[in-house]
């Protein structure tokens, strides 16, 4: 009897242990089940500067807080590397889930059938397209088809060192607004004996077209391929730039990277650059200001640019939908605000413009106000890169080094003809 009792107890314990063991197995299976529902997205981008660190922080925050089980893994590389890797990756079905690159590549990608049509993005994510500047969103369309979702928008801005302005007897709160004032300030700021220069004029600066626009000139009609470079208006403007350079306001053979460094160290009083310098200057505690590109006889214009998220051709629907969720997250006011405040990029969300912190940010307000003069500099034009590398850059390098302006313009115009008539 006693033996039966002991046996019963042992049996009961065994069954209980088995029961709890079964419960234990269920608990360990739940994470495996959850893991099966997780989605990992790969993102290729070119944000190699300090703004890339901010981008990674925002992405990490998304990875930790989104409730869709989505993890975005970002791979940052230089632009040349990305552009060389992407075509092969698309053709071998090894492309990333999405990319983040300059909007100037959209037309080229579309021509090569390299992007997914994402025209259903707004409806699929319940995102209000009308809440964003039309001109910004339009840069991600080709015709009526959406191929990208805007990430940021920017122009070229005039940075000026307020301390150098004060030392030169200039009003630190009154940056130049015209070409004539720009020349006056540049000369006043220059003191070569002390290694001080007034205006950075890099030989590799890609936006000298802004000066041509300001006086009513241009380089190319991208709609008709008409060559507009060899004109008296352009020659007059370029002669003025050469004379300004000869006056010693800028170091010889200056590159854009060197211009940024010299401005940061207080050796150059003014330079033209995008908003990516703001983060660095704030970190240095520099006393600086930002203004719009000064105007010429025809007005003020600045070459616009930006970046968009795009999805490579051949991406499956499940991945595409997951990317949509991240892109919609990026367009929320909280994320756009963080990006603008920390990097100084202009605000292009109407709802975010009403934010009190945005309204009270002097630098950001200056950038946003200066962003009203944007103009398309061959964005998406099939010959754009060739015009930069084979026409404008060599022409400007030679002119800034003292070559005959008329001859350089004629030679550059001939090279432009060769490009657009191929």
From TrEMBL:
Q: Which residues form the signal peptide?
A: 1-21
Write one Pfam family the protein is assigned to: SBP_bac_8
Organism equals Faecalicatena faecalis
Q: Which UniProt keywords apply?
A: Signal, Transport
Family, per the entry?
A: Belongs to the bacterial solute-binding protein 1 family.
| Spans traversing the lipid bilayer | none
> Can you say what this protein is called?
ABC transporter substrate-binding protein
């Amino acid at each position: 009897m006693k033996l039966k009792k002991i046996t019963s107890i042992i049996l009961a314990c065994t069954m209980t242990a088995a029961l709890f063991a079964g419960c234990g197995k269920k608990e360990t299976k739940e994470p495996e089940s959850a893991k099966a529902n997780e989605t990992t997205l790969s993102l290729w981008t070119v944000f190699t500067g300090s703004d890339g660190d901010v981008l990674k922080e925002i992405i990490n925050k998304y990875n930790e807080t989104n409730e869709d089980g989505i993890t975005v893994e970002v791979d940052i590389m230089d632009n040349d590397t990305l552009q060389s890797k992407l075509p092969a990756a698309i053709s071998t079905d090894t492309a990333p889930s999405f990319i983040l690159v300059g909007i100037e590549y959209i037309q080229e990608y579309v021509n090569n059938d390299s992007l997914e049509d994402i025209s259903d993005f707004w409806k699929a994510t319940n995102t209000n397209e009308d809440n964003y500047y039309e001109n910004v969103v339009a840069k991600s369309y080709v015709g009526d088809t959406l191929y990208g979702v805007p990430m940021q928008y920017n122009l070229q801005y005039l940075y000026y060192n307020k301390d150098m302005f004060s030392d030169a007897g200039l009003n630190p709160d009154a940056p130049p607004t015209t070409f004539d004032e720009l020349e006056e300030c540049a000369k006043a700021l220059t003191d070569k004996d002390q290694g001080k220069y007034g205006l950075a004029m890099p030989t590799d600066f890609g936006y000298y077209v802004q000066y041509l626009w300001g006086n009513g000139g241009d380089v190319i009609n991208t709609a008709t391929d008409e060559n507009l470079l060899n004109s008296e208006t352009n020659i007059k403007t370029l002669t003025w730039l050469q004379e300004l350079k000869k006056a010693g306001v800028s170091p010889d053979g200056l590159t854009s990277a060197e211009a940024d460094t010299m401005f940061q160290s207080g050796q150059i009083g003014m330079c033209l650059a995008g908003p990516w310098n703001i983060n660095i200057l704030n970190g240095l505690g520099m006393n600086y200001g930002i203004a719009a590109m000064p105007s010429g006889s025809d007005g003020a214009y600045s070459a616009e640019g930006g970046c968009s998220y795009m999805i490579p051709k051949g991406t499956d629907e499940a991945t595409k939908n997951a990317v949509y969720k991240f892109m919609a997250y990026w367009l929320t006011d909280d994320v756009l605000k963080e990006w603008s405040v920390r990097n100084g990029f202009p605000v292009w969300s109407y709802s975010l413009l009403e934010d009190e912190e945005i309204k009270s940010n002097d630098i950001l307000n200056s950038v946003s106000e200066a962003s009203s003069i944007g103009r398309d500099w061959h964005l998406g034009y099939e010959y754009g890169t060739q015009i930069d590398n084979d026409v404008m850059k060599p022409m400007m390098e030679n002119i800034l080094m003292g070559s005959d302006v008329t001859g350089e313009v004629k030679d550059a115009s001939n090279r432009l003809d060769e490009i657009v008539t191929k």
